[in-house]
Amino acid sequence: RKKCLLCNNVLMIVAASIMGCSKISQSFEMILIGRFMCGVSAGLCVPLHYQYVGEISPRKLRGFANSTSSFFWSLGKAIGQISGQRELLGSQSLWPMLMASCGLPALVQLVTLPFFPESPPYLLMQKEDQEGCEKAIRQLWGEGQHQAEIDDIMKEKATMKNTKILSVLELVKDPAFRWQLYMIVTLTATIQLCGINAV
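Now predict its structure.
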């Protein structure tokens, strides 16, 4: 999870750099390439963020921690719209800085994320590193009795062993998941109509 987020931040910084240099290079193609890379990075970031934050949070704060991403997502959109005004960064001379500003949060995360541990469920379930899992839990949640959380992760691991993991192609082809897939695509496609930007 952590390595994916770090690589994703590099992708966002590269995208921001390409867009920021588009005016100097006098190339509108660089804006298109940068925006495409930025969209790919944002698409990867959302599920990765939810997963990582959910896995490193203590159970009693997990719901709150997952809801913060929606708040910051909306806050980022609002800041982008405000800073895009002509009086701020939306002027003819400053718009490359506005386009490159998406790299700033990625840079902050790239610098700070290495100080955070990998998620405990990932260490225990995928890497089978119980000692690393316990160390990560202590680093995240402090010293104390965390055996109940480790037992929950072990139960989840036992459940996952009996579950067949489908590839994307198998998921799309399987008629049993067709309606769930339609529902997810519809919800994702219409999320902009729900009023979250206004809120």
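DSSP finds eleven helices and no strands in the chain.
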